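Narrative progress, year one. The postdoctoral researcher (J.K.) led the effort to move from monomer predictions toward full complexes, under supervision of the PI. The following entry was the first complex the group processed end to end, covering 969 residues in total.
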Amino acid sequence: MIADMQYDQSGQLRHFLTIEGLAWETLVHILDTAQSFITFGEREIKKVPILRGKTVVNLFFENSTRTRTTFEIAAKRLSADVINLNPSRLSTSKGESVLDTVKNLEAMHTDLFVVRDAHSGAAFLIAQHVPPHVAIINAGDGRHAHPTQAMLDMFTIRQYKKDFGNLRVAIVGDILHSRVARSQIHALNILGVPEVRVIAPKTLLPTEVERLGVQPYTDMRKGLKDVDVIMMLRLQLERMQGTLIASEQEYFNLYGLTEDKVALAKPDALVMHPGPINRGLEIASEVADGPHSVILDQVTNGIAVRMSIMAIVMGGQSERKAS
Amino acid sequence: MIADMQYDQSGQLRHFLTIEGLAWETLVHILDTAQSFITFGEREIKKVPILRGKTVVNLFFENSTRTRTTFEIAAKRLSADVINLNPSRLSTSKGESVLDTVKNLEAMHTDLFVVRDAHSGAAFLIAQHVPPHVAIINAGDGRHAHPTQAMLDMFTIRQYKKDFGNLRVAIVGDILHSRVARSQIHALNILGVPEVRVIAPKTLLPTEVERLGVQPYTDMRKGLKDVDVIMMLRLQLERMQGTLIASEQEYFNLYGLTEDKVALAKPDALVMHPGPINRGLEIASEVADGPHSVILDQVTNGIAVRMSIMAIVMGGQSERKAS
Amino acid sequence: MIADMQYDQSGQLRHFLTIEGLAWETLVHILDTAQSFITFGEREIKKVPILRGKTVVNLFFENSTRTRTTFEIAAKRLSADVINLNPSRLSTSKGESVLDTVKNLEAMHTDLFVVRDAHSGAAFLIAQHVPPHVAIINAGDGRHAHPTQAMLDMFTIRQYKKDFGNLRVAIVGDILHSRVARSQIHALNILGVPEVRVIAPKTLLPTEVERLGVQPYTDMRKGLKDVDVIMMLRLQLERMQGTLIASEQEYFNLYGLTEDKVALAKPDALVMHPGPINRGLEIASEVADGPHSVILDQVTNGIAVRMSIMAIVMGGQSERKAS
């Protein structure tokens, strides 16, 4: 149902809100399009005129300079004009003020909203109320989804591992609260990864997590055994109740990624992290900066993947406007 | 005198500070030029190169993300570079620090300042001190004027009513403190609207308001009778002393715009509001979103009207520089 | 050693961190290149495509709207895309978080970082860790250096005095804490100014200041005698301990620049100030706005000089990337 919202009548992607329910072909199309942009980072002139004359609004109800910057750079490389907004989320009932903000922006003939909000479902709510020619990209909504992050992770995995069909992937950390984990799991499943593990203390695992198509582990050493990819999550202490983990030191001992734990994975295993990393909390510096780490590749790929998603959701815009 | 400041020696508009004292021809020229931009919102490539190579500075001593965004979008659609500044208004005597800020910006060869300030007269003070090739647009100064808002209102009225010559217009709300109302009244008078009414509790009406060329009403039901246009003002509680209105509920009962009150106006009456609307305070949601409302048209037109005013005040720039 | 870091293997300037140790030819090249841009401020179309497709990041750990704006305008006039960041300087040990921020930005294939920080050495630390194709410009680091300010000062002096070889220059104010003074002294020495004086109360003079190649004066009237250029510093009360100066009034009496003190200098002496000026504290308004003042020329020249430095450090970028 939500996935249906993401496609227009001709089957083209018009919003990018969640990985859940997207077709395998859609994800591959995003990755392939990103591949065509990835060389631009190396070229002298990096701009392409694909979104020239378009206005992209970074609508960040939750502040995140880092994520906002990646979308701003991606949009400018596509030659779009960019407006950065950090509206306060007024505490009116029924989210009306958010929709009034959005209606005003669309009345200004802006074209693409990149929405970030601390509340799950914000991007969906907005997508339900915009006219056909306005596209919405979810840049993270509460605990729900962070689909562009998941796609850049998939891009990075494909870059090194070529084929998703024979991989064993472990996601480590606060699975319970992580919108990143949720989007990664959907993407890995759709792209055909046969074995996805989640590793966390019991208090940070959702109940019945197996339903998501993953295998839970509470013992990190067992969970990392022979995996091809280790996807660390950021420990967001501010989102946790104090009782969920005993202490930072104990957490690091049990679930922090250290060199000896990496050694349990396959010799050519990738170490990934969405950033910003908490050195010494969920990952040791030696690992973050070590030979398995592709953390900075993820950052580089994040620009290309966001360019790709922006270009794709805007691709059908003119036809929708005409109809 | 102030109006004189707005024209250069050849009679071209060089600043846009207040509607008061402008010629009928000037207002019509602004509306006609805006009309030429209004289609751009619908086209694929929305940018025009009119201000290419120019630097527009949004100089907002008073914070207003909403208004700033409209000027930023308008300037970028004209291909200008935009610098957003929110300088704190240092409490030095004689406004010297403001003028030092302005002198510095003009020394950087910036071309157009969009000035917003909580103090009446700020844009004038600045306009008195800039060299001939720098243009000033007043984006709202204290209780004094908000002329671009009034012009987008006029544009919206003309869009629907074609002719100003036989209209009855009512402005409703805090007339006493409203820079918007002041600018609207001047514009309506210059454009030849034969009957302009202002509707407010006595405490929110200026003394001798008739001198402005309007008819005051304290009974909203009488004031709305047979009008063609209802222009609501925003109730800015933060600018009022607590004693000016009895309570929000009582205010809404007496002066809030509800469907039954709209029914007193002409059947094709327009409902306007400068935004952001306080739903349930000065306007009922059913009216704001109802068939008479042109509130979102105002937002759309605001971009075109601001593009128009920017293009016009910059139009004579090169000649003034040469002289 | 630090100067070596600023040149690449072929002897081209690749970072601009400090004046100290730069070659005379480099400074003259910067001034000459700035001269080629200075006319652009007068032309209709001010943009040049030199940095088209490049991304400039204003990385301001210390907030300075004024300086940031000059770099933003300069970068946009070179057609670069500009990202403004004000990251908080996290209090982690070893500056690791700053370097993680920088590594992330360079992974996004940004090209030029303009770095401002309250800590001396920040720009150096960053320059030591970036790959060959990323350039760093120091926009002020603690008490250490503010080299772009010094270069715009040199440009302004040359504009009026043509030749550095026969000048007597006095720098007045808080020499002890001033990064501006330090950079000015290096630049004046390298460009061959035969006599550089520093004027300050003893408490605001570094010990053994003569080693920098300057002559110290505590009596301003003696120090200004027959000088060609008076370079005032900004009195930054927030950086001083209360005991360093007795009172603002006494400071102004002894070291504030007044018309009668200017009269001690040569008749065609220049009065300079890096801004923003504290009127009546270190400089009288009559002097700041008077016939000797070139303070607003400095602002204008600051854009051209920053364009020059940006263009030069990016000039060798493609070769370094290829190698």
